[in-house]
Specification:
globular, two-stranded parallel ribbon, single chain, alpha+beta, Peptide Deformylase
Length: 195
């Protein structure tokens, strides 16, 4: 089932999410709905707060990032990376920060360069509640960091300079009011007629 994606301005996007246990009700159904919702919106990641649930859960599928300008090995890595992250904790970030143009399904039509470290170590549970500690780098690390921020109550726009924030403020207000056209289901916090 395709769920509405919560738009910028909803308080759930600014809350630090809570851990869940392996007996969380209908987890399989929730994960299936989240993947369907993400693919419907052409996303590469989706966090539970973006569908209104303040829990530490996000999904990633980097296949859309694979392109011809990469080596075959990089393409294969991105095409095959699909992962569920439950109760994730980034335990280390390493390397020189690099810039990449990021967007967010909760903040449509806003894209800005964000600086992040290229290598991370993450402790998390998968969909079978098996615990992992893994190192990720490059674009995969970036997508994980972006989704991880969501479960910490942080949006990519929070990482921008005060000047950039001022420049996009009008767009953000319009998004929160639902004064925007998107081709996927959204829930707007300040819209007169919620969609």
């Amino acid at each position: 089932m395709i769920l509405p994606i919560v738009a910028y301005g909803d308080p759930v996007l600014k809350k630090k999410a809570k851990d869940i246990s392996k007996d969380f009700p209908k987890l399989d159904e929730l994960l299936s709905n989240m993947f369907e919702t993400m693919y419907n919106a052409y996303g590469v990641g989706l966090a539970a707060p973006q569908i209104g649930l303040p829990i530490r859960l996000f999904i990633v599928d980097t296949a859309p990032f694979a392109d011809d300008e990469m080596t075959e090995e990089e393409q294969m890595e991105l095409k095959s990376f699909k992962q569920v992250f439950i109760n994730a904790k980034i335990i280390q970030e390493e390397g020189k920060e690099w810039s990449f143009n990021e967007g967010c399904l909760s903040i449509p039509d806003v894209r800005e360069d964000v600086y992040r470290q290229p290598k991370i170590t993450v402790e998390y549970y998968d969909e079978h509640f098996e615990k992992h500690t893994k190192v990720f780098d490059g674009l995969i690390a970036r997508v994980i960091q972006h989704e991880y921020d969501h479960i910490e109550g942080v949006l990519f726009t929070d990482k921008l300079s005060s000047l950039k924030k001022r420049l996009i403020k009008g767009k953000l207000v319009k998004i929160s009011k639902g004064d925007i056209s998107v081709d996927y289901r959204m829930r707007f916090p300040n819209a007169k007629n919620r969609r």
